[in-house]
Design a protein that fits this description.
Chain lengths: 373, 373, 373
């Protein structure tokens, strides 16, 4: 399965049709402010800033109209499969900006900004040389402008300038994936740090022409940190808190958008069998913190720094930095049955702020490797 | 010398015998809470959390019973030597959790949690394919549970689940070192960030089968940051301060557990001769901060990222990141006589928070390389 | 052009002659305090600390005598060119410490400490095996001691001990560049974090004997973070604020010493033509923060970690960490016309704290690569 001709919009949220004015019409109506600034226009987003009609803190407020959803956490296994194709292809991809309310943990409501209702946004998978026809939709019930920046794209703002749209509008752009690797995409309006903190990031994998090594499983994770006006665990509505973001001091640090999302205590752990292998795709949205990504009780057998899957991997790394605005790709072995905990090894983020995922390895004990009997 | 059949317990602290109930008996008496949780049990440490009988801040308090010691700073030269053996071996290793009071700097008392009374804990050194029979002892005068997580181990919690013991108890586990590298070990109870901050981390070196390159010296360092309720330098008892840890804003950042520990102003500098070589083993306990490890007046001739001593090194790196929960291995040359200062190049940690070690290079001036006359 | 026999002092600031007492005479007059401390002297800067006659916060204050200048932002193109020479050479380099007032953004005055009036300081470029005769001048109108630490130097303090001079004095030292790479130099007095934060850092490039790959452009950038007693954007004089530095919570994060310095909104963007190539030299002064350096709308075609230009590059990296006290070297391709934004991808530093540079790529649209029409 790949993303070809697939609308990645998830099911739970049914926004009304967003096919109103196209972005080009919108910009025309705006008087072409973006293009009239001469040299000023080379600050690509300065015009967009002028279009924000509410304060940053207010943009994070939950209103009676904000849709409620049960879950934003992306399913780590719900991703396109490896590419066996050896010829170029054109993909139709739609990313839908959705502002929703979901719980970070039991009793803690937060207004997430998402791509297609999930955090991280859908994984897009192409082959080097493929073309992507991208549509960005901003639902009419949203409160602010959105756009998208792909690190896999040569072009102003990585698509962001051309995809900036107000609620109820959409925009189209095409790009060729000219270089290989795993790359972040994220909202890049002037308040991009707040939008990414709220969940607006995902990954595009550009496979090298020869494809990737075979593995038994592939898992997809994203880390972002959330800045709120309450302490972690305090019940009630948590509103976005700008001073905490400026101080880079978050309330929550989350794997897939919720506290302990991918564990038995929330949406369930992942499961593999002993002697299988897995590839882990990790994107750090940030907006500010670097993940120190470590599998407790295991090791990264192979690690591709910055998601550069075409370079030679380093082997047996324990804790890999995945910078904000970057990706890591890792291969794992499972020689013993165990529960592996994926954490940010800046451990207060695990122990106090919610960052945890679990992979359960099934199979017979191997006491010559690990014996706790 | 290697660690075979050696009890790594240091001399200064004489705890009474800890051979009471074994961990298995302890868990049985606890009603098997750990195993009865079904899927909940896959959060390996949730049961242990229930056993913490005091608040995190209280766990850091010094009581009349907390043993006083003169020094926790590990001697960087007191480590097992390189392995020349080319056959597998089984090691008996004992790690003893010891909560002690020692000065961070003159007049500043702090309750350290340590392995065997030293920070970082003893360096353990094995060869890929060796087996370790590990005993974890929790002294009866300690105040809380402890355990250990080895990044060199395949198995739940990297041994942590199987070694969680209350004061006065011990636990045994066996593991094989199946992959090479330099890896951290650390306490991994639910409040692991507080325990590591207080000193509970060390390094296990798993040499590749062919061993390591020859050098004239080997030095062992560890960095951890301490969060207290006072300002750096303020005299008196410094108690652990949880809000500072949550904000990742420490009072002290220490090399080997004390301010300027390995300098003439405290326990003495290291000394080498010109034209010798040295290998530096560095473990960052954290729990939260990354070291930007730099030798002032020198350079890392070779650097193995993440302690991956089996990978090809990079050469002539100035400032290497050693993430919390990771290790770096470095090789140094000493072409001129000088005083080299080892620092975290996030320089306020050196200038304001105590992070400094010194290597004194003896020998004749070499004015064609460096001439300050 | 290289730096041979060139006084790097910039034009705008005309300090009176600094050829008073040499450093050696100065130290003699000080009673040889540095050398009399026995083992204490192995803390190379402890003597210098005693010479600071004012508090750290006061050292940051603007006085009526502090020279006002229009600009401290270094021109990214004003650097020595690549070295084609294949024989050793001796360079005469002068670094002048200048404390000046300049605006960080419109209406925001700050007292910068600079090398030769620019931030980052002048790029010095030599070939491995070359010798540098270095003079450090401390202008008489300055308020405190200064010195310089080169990461390219074997020797105590990387020159810092031998170049510590009070206002009105100068010092000379010679060193050979024995290993290749791009290295930071920075002031390294006891309050080095405050001095670097205020702008006292730059880069020395030590080319390998065979030189560097050919490119069409070379650009030079530096990042430092500024800690003040006001909020970003608040008009008026911003004084240095020590508690913010200790908390590593800056007011501004700057590329080349001013908000949006290398953009059309301040001193102008850089310009290149489509299909050209560029090499980017990036030095992170810090003192505390790591840059997550990313070119929005582009990618690092080749990246040399830690400035290690003699090692094999990694390819197609999106966001590279440049640690405080380190450098990165990057190669870029420009296949499409666009405005590339250079940012720290800890995005609040771009969105809220001023970190931005722009490269404008001129040429014909390439709709088969990027089509926003």
């Amino acid at each position: 399965m790949d993303t070809d001709k697939e609308d990645l919009t998830d099911k739970p949220l049914k926004g009304k049709s967003t096919n109103g004015l196209s972005r080009k019409e919108f910009m025309k109506n705006m008087g072409g402010a973006m293009l009239s600034g001469g040299m000023l226009a080379s600050l690509p987003f300065s015009d967009a800033e002028a279009k924000e009609t509410t304060s940053e803190n207010n943009a994070g407020l939950i209103t009676p109209n904000t849709p409620r959803v049960d879950r934003v956490a992306a399913d780590p296994t719900d991703i396109p499969g490896p590419i066996s194709r050896r010829t170029p292809k054109t993909h139709e991809v739609t990313l839908v900006a959705k502002e929703v309310v979901a719980e970070i943990e039991d009793g803690v409501q937060f207004k997430h900004m998402t791509w297609n209702g999930q955090v991280p946004g859908p994984m897009i998978r192409v082959r080097q040389g493929d073309t992507v026809n991208l549509t960005v939709k901003n639902l009419s019930e949203n409160t602010t402008i959105h756009n998208v920046d792909f690190h896999a794209v040569y072009g102003t703002g990585g698509c962001a300038k051309a995809t900036t749209v107000p609620p109820g509008k959409d925009a189209q752009v095409s790009f060729k994936a000219t270089y290989p690797g795993a790359f972040i995409y994220h909202c890049a309006v002037p308040r991009l740090d707040m939008h990414i903190s709220s969940g607006m990031y995902g990954m595009i994998v550009v496979e090298p022409p020869e494809g990737l090594p075979e593995v038994d499983h592939e898992f997809y994770f994203g880390q972002n940190e959330v800045y709120t006006d309450k302490e972690a665990g305090e019940k009630g509505v948590h509103n976005f808190h700008k001073p905490s973001m400026i101080a880079e001091n978050p309330t929550y640090v989350l794997l897939n958008g919720a506290k302990n999302a991918i564990t038995p205590n929330r949406y369930g752990a992942l499961e593999v069998d002993r002697e299988e292998t897995a590839r882990v795709f990790m994107v750090t949205g940030g907006p500010n913190l670097t993940s120190n990504f470590h599998p407790i009780g295991n090791v990264w057998t192979k690690a591709w720094r910055e998601g550069a899957i075409h370079n030679d991997p380093e082997t047996y790394l324990q804790t890999c930095k995945v910078a904000p605005g970057s990706c890591g790709v890792f291969q794992m072995d499972f020689p013993v049955p165990e529960n592996i905990m994926l954490v940010d090894h800046a451990l207060s983020r695990y122990a106090k702020k919610g960052m945890l995922g679990i992979i359960k390895v099934n199979g017979e004990e191997q006491p010559e490797i690990f014996d706790a009997s």
